[in-house]
């Protein structure tokens, strides 16, 4: 058998020990993944929101005239933006400070990211999915909104501005 053949090959005992240890570690990882799959199931993350990136201009939510900052009857503020090579649309938004804001981003083409320096806000914008983040700007000021996923030659120039007012 392979086992007796394996034993017949001369391998330094210390090396054999380490082979056994590394196999045990791999086995442990496989066991953890298998048990996790058995008890929690292997599924895509729940509550993912999909959207057809190719027809955003026809969608009820992300058509051009629906983008930007909107306040509903209950006073809840939603900011809708489209990312595309190489800009965010709209290019500039104005939002209030110290107010919860729900950002909803979609991509019209490839993978983009969004990062607002000096805040903890950062997410990927995957084509076909809606990226949503709720946040509050504590202080008024001018904040850039940058693309942080390489998306092509114009990636470095892909940004927008947020004016946070008191
Ligand atoms: Cu969009 Cu980098």
Short descriptors:
alpha+beta, binds dinuclear copper ion, 166 residues, 21% helix, 10 strands, Immunoglobulin-like, 2 helices, 2 domains, three-stranded mixed sheet, five-stranded mixed sheet, single chain
Question: How would you describe this structure to a colleague?
Answer:
This protein is α+β, with helices and mostly antiparallel strands. The chain folds into 2 domains: 39 residues; 113 residues, Cupredoxins -  blue copper proteins (Immunoglobulin-like, Sandwich), CATH 2.60.40. Helices cover 21% and strands 32% of the residues. It is built from 2 helices and 10 strands. Strands 1, 2, 3, 5 and 8 form a 5-stranded mixed β-sheet that branches. Strands 4-10-9 form a 3-stranded mixed β-sheet, with no helix packed on it. The longest helix is centred in the N-terminal third of the chain and has 28 residues. It starts with a helix and ends with a strand. The relative contact order is 0.15. Bound molecules: dinuclear copper ion (CUA). The site of dinuclear copper ion (CUA) has 7 residues, from loops.
């Amino acid at each position: 058998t392979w086992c007796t053949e394996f034993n017949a090959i001369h391998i330094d005992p210390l090396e054999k020990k380490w082979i056994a240890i590394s196999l045990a570690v791999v086995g442990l990882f496989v066991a953890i993944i298998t048990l996790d799959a058995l008890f929690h199931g292997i599924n895509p993350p729940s509550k993912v929101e999909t959207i057809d990136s190719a027809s955003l201009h026809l969608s009820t939510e992300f058509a051009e005239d629906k983008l930007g900052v909107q306040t509903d009857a209950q006073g809840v503020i939603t900011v809708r933006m489209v990312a595309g090579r190489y800009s965010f649309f709209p290019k500039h938004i104005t939002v209030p400070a110290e107010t919860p804001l729900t950002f909803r981003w979609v991509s019209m083409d490839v993978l983009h990211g969004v990062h607002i320096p000096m805040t903890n806000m950062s997410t990927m914008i995957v084509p076909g999915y809606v990226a949503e983040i709720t946040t509050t700007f504590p202080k008024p000021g001018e904040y850039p909104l940058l693309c942080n996923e390489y998306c092509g030659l114009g990636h470095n120039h892909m940004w927008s501005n947020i004016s946070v007012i008191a």
